Amino acid sequence: MSQPVKVLRIGLSAASLVIAGILFVIYPALRPFSDETSLEGAIAFASSEWLAAHMLAMVAFTLLPLGLLGLHNSLHGTAVNSLTYRAFLFCTLGTGLALPYYGGEAFGLHAIGQEAIRQQSAELVSLASTVRGGAALIMFLAGLLFLGVSAILWAIAIWKSGKYPKWSGIPFALGLCLYIPQFFVGQPLRIAHGLLVAFGCIWIAADLWSSRA
After folding, report:
1. CA 77, CA 164: separation in Å to the nearest integer?
2. In a domain, 187, yes or no
3. CA–CA distance, 23 with 187 (Å, rounded to integer)
4. Is residue 117 part of a domain?
5. pLDDT digit string (tens) for 88-97?
6. Is the dihedral of CA 200, 21, 107, 36 positive or negative?
7. Which one, of 154, 152, 25, 146, lies nearest residue 96 by Cα?
8. Could you give the CA distance from residue 137 to residue 141 in angstroms, rounded to a whole number?
């Protein structure tokens, strides 16, 4: 592979991680938080901010494997190459399982909110639990668990690689492992969690970019 092509690929992967990190912060900052058992919840669901926030979250998750593929390639031929391959597989699988839930949140709840406002019916808002439950929730939780496992494997690979600072994978791993617990806290802590994930993504991106030579 020629050096310009290598630099371009590393740059695209690093940029994917940086953009993903930024979007992980914008998502909880933009998302409306309200009482989701009343028409106040319907107004939140029907808002453009609700739709945009969840679409940005989907983009963020989609960019993660693209960015981490560059990290895997940068460690090709090292002792941790097989470990990064497994980490990439877990990341891709986790992303695929998590995205349908965000689709339901973005488009399903948005449509429910609009209809609840049109009918002025708070009862329709209760359909949100149907959209969020069942098989969709199981897939979502499985996806986030796979992403957590992936992040731990990335942190171990970076630690053992000898190519990057040992601690540079820890914030990323911590952020993804806390993704499920952060759903049970308020907006300020969810934004703080987004900042942690962003910090982890940007740190790895910086290391990746520094390896281009």
Report:
1. 15
2. yes
3. 15
4. no
5. 999 999 999 9
6. positive
7. 146
8. 6
Q: What range does the domain containing 198 cover?
A: 3-37+49-100+143-210
152 falls within a domain: yes
Q: How far is CA 190 from CA 40, 98, 136, 159, in A?
A: 21, 18, 22, 27
43 assigned to some structural domain: no
Confidence of residue 2 (pLDDT cuts 50, 70, 90): confident
Q: What is the pTM of this model?
A: 0.94
Give the start-end residues of each E strand in 20-142: none
Residue 47 token pair: 């808002």
The number of domains in the chain is: 1
| Encoded tokens for 16 | 């994917």
Please spell the DSSP secondary structure of 168-213, one letter per residue: GGHHHHHHHHTTTGGGGS-HHHHHHHHHHHHHHHHHHHHHHHHTT-
